[in-house]
Amino acid sequence: MTDFPFAPGFVERPYWWEAAPPPAPAATLLPDEAEVLIVGGGIAGLSTAIELGRNGVRALVIDREAIGWGASSRNGGALSGAGSLGKTRSDLVESFGKEYVAELMEEGEQAFEDFEAFVERERLDCDYVRCGRFVGAHAPRALEALKRRIDLINGAGTEEAFFVPRERVAEEIATDRFVGGMMLRRAGALHPAKYVRALASAAMRYGATLAGGVAMRGHRREAGGGFVVETSRGPIRARRLMIATNGYTGGATPWHRRRLIPVASYMIATEAIGEERVRRALPQMRVYGDTKKVLYYFRPSPDGTRILFGGRASFVNADTRRSGATLHRFLTDLIPDLADVRITHSWKGNVAFAFDMMPHVGEHEGVHHAMACNGSGVVTMTHLGTATAQAMLGGANRPSAFARLPFPTRPLYTGHPWFLPVVGLSYQLRDRLDGWRVPRKDAS
Fold first, then answer.
1. Residue 424 lies in a domain
2. Potential cystine with 293: which of 73, 102, 427, 442 (Cβ 3.0-4.6 Å)?
3. By CB neighbour count within 10 A (0-12 exposed, 13-18 middle, 19+ buried), where does 144 fall?
4. Would you state the pLDDT for residue 398?
5. DSSP class of residue 131?
6. Please, where are the H alpha helices in 122-178?
7. Residue 3's closest CA among 441, 342, 345?
8. What range does the domain containing 331 cover?
């Protein structure tokens, strides 16, 4: 047991890739011209390509890595509607106004319904289940914020959010660390790597060309309209251009990069411990989160035999073995019954935050974008990708309310989040002041 908490055969790659690894980039023949060129082969880009294809427009999707290699196939696979909107801030109404926030919340709730219909319509094999979501309050002051969020969600007319008092937390999770919580009925789980693989198949079925291993180097607008996009495989002319690179946005699109804060999020998978023991820890088999600044998110595996646990194990670029030990410590502090359980997988992926902590869709100098999912991207990016396609097609009955949000940046910020370690320390201090404590040393 000297290598505890690592199980024999431990690997530093996503658990999800065991069932659905990203495809190796193939020598796809790239066209010289495209009606629509989409940069980024994740959920947003592929969803855009699907909606375009359904309307007779064939897209070209490129990605510098394999299609689906990024956070789209690495995330926790938890999803909800408006319950995740602006979850890291408590001043939504004060900042954006009651009527506009109500519009955003309504769209967020509808996006979840549309997502479920989309999965059924396209017959996407992704282990989707509507299971609900429990958010644990880490401190008494967080309870009031959760109650306000419940009112905001239910104000959209769904009545799908419920307060969970402390004495009933054990019905949701085997811990005494939470002082109450919120249960969202409109929430679910899927297998993210299977989902992005199914999206890729659907996009190709609708005529899209997918090309992994192709990096964008830059672009320029042509006088007569359209763009010339420089890639690692040569120039491509495109009538329309979309950037959907999110947490992996690079220097080729500096305007977008200056508006995104890439943050590494880390995950582990426990060894298979059987459904009975998983249910003992997570009785309702939902997806889970909490209200801390250094948040946790976790869930059962799709087959119900493991627990998948994620969080901000580090605010610097940590190796995944060390982050795996840290996350194991977080998990067993939260659910002590799992103290003897080892981990088989540890991995990380970049999510992207906006400075206003809101998702963004729109157009800048003719270039479309859908990005800044702020850690809740499955439903959000599916919805905003579809909205982007509808905007290109000019046929949206009701343009997305998110398109009216300004996309802020900060003076002198270039896309390198040098301030994250300082932010991380302040978040840890805030959690400690709220009364949250975890063991400081990794298990050994």
1. no
2. 427
3. exposed
4. 78
5. -
6. 140-154
7. 342
8. 6-404
- Which residue matches tokens 């605010």? 315
For residue 221, being part of any structural domain is answered with yes
Distance set, CA 391 to CA 58, 319, 367 (Å): 15, 40, 12
Q: In the Cβ-directed half-sphere of 306, how many Cα atoms lie within 13 Å?
A: 17
The two three-digit tokens of residue 211, written as one number = 């090309």
Q: What is the value of pTM for the model shown?
A: 0.94
**CA-CA distance, 334 to 388, in Å (whole number)?**
40
> In this structure, is residue 414 part of a structural domain?
no
Please check whether residue 103 is in contact with residue 110, taking contact to mean a CB–CB distance below 8 angstroms: no
Q: What was the pLDDT predicted at 92?
A: 72
pLDDT tens-digit map of 242-286: 999 999 999 999 999 999 999 999 999 999 999 999 999 999 999
What pLDDT sits at residue 308? 98
Q: Pick out the chain residues at pLDDT < 50.
A: 1, 442-444
Biggest alpha carbon–alpha carbon distance for the chain: 68
CATH number, residue 167: 3.50.50.60
Which of 31, 26, 66 shows the shortest CA–CA distance to 238?
31
What is the token pair recorded at 259? 């508006």
Is 143 strand, coil or helix? helix
> Residue 435 domain-assigned?
no
